[in-house]
Amino acid sequence: MFKKQSGRQAKKSLNDKLDERIYISLNKILRLRYQATGFSFLPRQPVHSLLTGQKHSRLRGRGLDFIEMRHYRPGDDIRALDWRVTNRTGKPHVRIYAEEKDRRVFILVDQRISMFFGSQHKMKSVVAAEVAALAAWRTLSVGDRVGLILFNNEKIKEFKPSRSESQLLQGYSHLIAMNHALNIRREPQSDENSLSIKTVLQKVENVAGHDSLIVVISDFLDWDSSALKSCKRLSQHNDVIAGLVYDPLERNLFSADKLVISDGQYQFEIDSKNKKLLNSYNAAKQQKDHRILTELRRHQIPVIPFDTITSAIKQIQSALGRKV
Predict the structure, then answer these.
(1) Considering its fold, how many domains does the chain have in total?
(2) Is residue 244 part of a domain?
(3) Inter-residue long-range contacts of 158-163, CB under 8 Å, 24+ positions, other chains counted
(4) Of 276 and 104, the one with more pLDDT
(5) Which of 162, 182, 210, 235 has the most crowded CB, counting CB atoms within 10 A?
(6) CATH number of the domain to which 300 belongs
(7) Residue-wise burial string across 169-189, b where 16 or more C-beta atoms lie within 10 A, e elsewhere
(8) Is 19 exposed, middle or buried (0-12, 13-18, 19+ CB in 10 A)?
């Protein structure tokens, strides 16, 4: 297990050479732009894609944008007649539509303190940032509008969907700032003051509207029935994909020789030979992960697990595109 750094050590490493296992870098995000291929959020997914067979999904096709109401002209499709306006004015009117040219994509990125954990290769917070960057670059490359909703324990930062690369880079800079602010010595937030996944999802309900794609990247540590209700409401008029970030050690504590648990202020060591305690923890963790998967998939919300060992691009390609 690699050792997490204190605030002073972290600043020193950032000034010298950034450890990309612990903190995301702008260079890494820019490099991911050229790797963001081989997967798609669009229709006609490959046979093995996680989105194949999704029912009643807005991913299955784009809709129509209303442009104007005008008088009927010979040759117009009579199915486009607006009978309410026609009856009111006494003259036939038709509604004119144009095919949507893009889709709004909202990418939610969890950078709370629970994400600042990694046992072997990378922090969960870094994996979340990498997956978000891959999804955003891919969205931009196909002409869709992408927006970022970033959150940590204290605040939510929203960047509205846009095809602007400069705005996306601005969002990345805030993502990097949130990521670099993570520190095991930071003042711990009480449960009452800390932002919950439920609060963030409720915020998205107010801005997502209809026919958007919403990608939620988190460890879902505080998942509860209220969060599920928000996801269900969002999925009624939008497509929702959940990216569940986890570290293998979280699911199997038997693989650790020494266990030290900390809330950022206090810490204590767990006897790794206490099989009863470890069995209890492993069972509870597996049960919770299974509940999240079951509840979301019951409502046709795909769940993509992302571990902290395998490269993010390989995992997203495996779920949403070609196998590599």
Answers:
(1) 2
(2) yes
(3) 158/203, 158/207, 160/207, 161/104, 161/105, 161/106, 161/212, 163/102
(4) 104
(5) 182
(6) 3.40.50.410
(7) eebbebbbebbbbbbbeeeee
(8) middle
Domain membership of residue 1 (yes or no) is no
For residues 86 and 134, membership in a common domain is answered with: no
Residues 71 and 210 grouped into a single domain: no
**pLDDT at residue 85 above 90?**
no
Give the structural domain span for 193. 7-57+102-320
**CA-CA distance, 27 to 15, in Å (whole number)?**
15
The one-letter amino acid at 48: H
Task: Look at residues 61, 77, 288, 32 and name the one whose alpha carbon lies nearest to residue 175.
Answer: 32
- Look at residues 113, 98, 204 and name the one whose alpha carbon lies nearest to residue 161: 204
> Which candidate, 228, 175, 235, 227, places its Cα nearest to that of 210?
235
What pLDDT sits at residue 173? 97
The model's pTM: 0.75
Instruction: At 35, list the tokens.
Output: 């790797």
